[in-house]
Design goal:
Elements (H helix, E strand, L loop, with lengths): L1 H30 L12 E2 L9 E3 L2 E14 L4 E7 L8 E4 L3 E8 L8 E3 L20 E2 L2 E3 L5 E6 L6 H6 L4 E6 L16 E9 L23 E4 L2 E2 L1 E7 L1 E8 L6 E5 L5 E6 L2 E9 L2 E3 L4 E7 L5 E6 L19 E13 L19 E10 L2 E2 L18 E8 L5 E5 L5 E5 L14 E4 L4 E7 L10 E4 L3 H5 L3 E4 L24
Bound molecules: copper (II) ion.
Copper (II) ion binds next to loops.
């Protein structure tokens, strides 16, 4: 009888534990969803990053960028931040195709950083990757000739093991390329008026109002914030004075993937992606952007109305636990406030620019890339290892797949690529133009085609990596050098104290 009583007690305890666990499970499951839909008070005018001043010096357009510490008001008092030429983010650099540019980067921080020109076609020595260290009090002045289509590029630190922290602190800015041959005059193009940067970054704050970069529970992707800042402004509104407004969206977040649309589900025209305008405008109501990706959209407004740019829940293609990486979240981003009378703007032309297509037959090399477990092809980043060496002017096809249950992307330095196939089929319109970063849902194979033109340097690598910054820092990155035809990869000379990546 005693045994029976003991068994009964054990049974009750087990039942209780199960109930508690199930309850905790349900709570945890539900707690992983953030929604700020209709809950953001849009009370602050959207900050527009100033255009960086530049000067001509012996035929070069010269910019100055200084990385510095400051504080910024995100609605949590004065939050310590980093910025370029200011407290947070940086000015918009702007140059025209054909110009030789030089950027004097000065580091006024108390630690080493780097500045990478994301999306730029340029010599490896100017790329600003993890080998181009700018120590405290030091400066670095890369120069290159801008030669690619009109596009919305950006710049940010790329210090191995520290990129997430540096970008999260506020080091990022836009680099716009102008090129009459690949622009469309009918699209809104007055900076800050009807052509507006929208740098979207989620942030989290601790009790003291400091930026909190601790990863979420089971997130596996690093920090996911519950507060959205646009160009550093929390709760932003934009006064719209024209019938149409072009938004240059940059996902400048560390980990969060957004599926942008409007709260009223209005349609808009997607006109450009990472590396330039599309060949034709794509009428849609959603555009998904993973960290590092850009999209240019044109929104049509009626006098006096308001529209809210929102990020919707989405299928990240990573299985049932997408909610732990932000896939179930709804975030209100930016309110557009149309004036009572709007200056007319032409309709968006359906045909935009010619995009020369890279052909499968031109490719001389195929390479497989499997992203899994913070590694690419089972290898983690090593500062002195060269993974492969394309020849200058050669065309290659990269076959890329995300083979684990987490969100990953692939960003390739130096080139803009085209998507040949997605799971064997032609890519959807939003992947039909020039790209430098692509989101990889699980187990979907992409074929990317690219040409390594102009620049060869056997001793200085370009990076390829996942642009979820936590993954990149954890080693989900590799290096290639471009060699002259028939050439061999050289030896990477890297300061020894950083030879094995992360330093703390
Ligand atoms: Cu990743």
């Amino acid at each position: 009888m005693r045994l029976r009583r003991v068994l009964a007690v054990i049974g009750v305890v087990v039942l209780l534990l199960c109930t508690v666990c199930a309850g905790a499970g349900v709570w945890l499951w539900n707690s992983q969803v953030i929604s700020t839909a209709d809950e953001v008070d849009f009370t602050r005018p959207l900050a527009v990053p100033p255009l960086a001043p530049s000067r001509m010096e012996s035929g070069r357009r010269v910019f100055d960028l200084k990385a510095q510490a400051g504080t910024h008001d995100f609605g949590h008092g004065q939050t310590p931040t980093w910025g370029f030429n200011g407290d947070v983010l940086g000015p918009t650099l702007r140059a025209t195709r054909g110009e030789q540019v030089q950027v004097n980067v000065t580091n006024a921080l108390d630690q080493t950083t780097t500045v990478h020109w994301h999306g730029m076609h340029l010599p490896a020595a100017a790329d600003g990757g993890p080998h181009h260290l700018v120590g405290p009090g030091k400066s670095w002045s890369p120069t290159w000739k801008v030669d690619q289509p009109a596009a919305t590029l950006w710049y940010h630190p790329h210090l191995h093991g520290e990129t997430a922290k540096h970008v999260y602190r506020g080091l990022a800015g836009l680099f716009l390329i102008d090129d009459p041959a690949t622009s469309v005059d009918a699209l809104p193009h007055e900076y800050g008026v009807d052509d507006v940067p929208v740098i979207v970054q989620d942030r989290k704050f601790d009790g003291g109002g400091r930026l909190d970069d601790t990863p979420g529970f089971m997130s596996g992707v690093g920090v996911l914030g519950d507060t959205v800042a646009v160009n550093g402004t929390v709760g932003p509104y934009l006064d719209v004075t024209t019938e149409r407004v072009r938004l240059r969206l940059l996902n400048g977040s560390n980990a969060r993937v957004y599926d942008f649309g409007f709260a009223d589900d209005r349609r808009f025209a997607l006109v450009g992606t990472d590396g330039g305008l599309l060949s034709s405008a794509y009428d849609t109501d959603r555009i998904m952007l993973s960290p590092g990706e850009r999209a240019e959209i044109v929104v049509t407004m009626k006098p006096g109305e308001r529209a809210v740019l929102r990020s919707y829940p989405q299928d990240l293609g990573t299985g049932p636990f997408g909610r732990f990486t932000g896939g179930a979240d709804t975030l209100d981003v930016l309110q557009l406030r149309a004036a009572g009378t709007l200056a007319p703007r032409p309709a968006v032309p359906s045909k935009l620019v010619e995009i020369p297509r890279l052909a499968r037959a031109d490719a001389v090399q195929q390479r497989p890339f499997r992203l899994s477990g913070h590694a690419i092809n089972s290898k983690q980043m090593e500062m002195t290892r060269i993974d492969f060496a394309p020849e200058r002017d050669s065309v290659e096809i990269w076959k890329v797949v995300n083979n684990d249950g987490e969100p990953h992307s692939l960003h390739v330095h130096d080139v803009q690529f085209q998507v040949l196939t997605r799971d064997g089929a032609a890519p959807p319109p939003q992947l039909s133009g020039w790209k430098d970063t692509i989101y990889l849902p699980g187990d979907v194979t992409f074929e990317l085609i690219m040409r390594f033109s102009d620049f060869a340097d056997p001793n200085t690598p370009y990076m390829f990596h996942c642009h979820v910054l936590f993954h990149e820092d954890a080693g989900m990155m590799g290096q290639f050098v471009v060699v002259p035809p028939g050439g061999k990869p050289g030896v990477i000379d890297h300061p020894s104290h950083l030879a094995h990546g992360g330093h703390h």
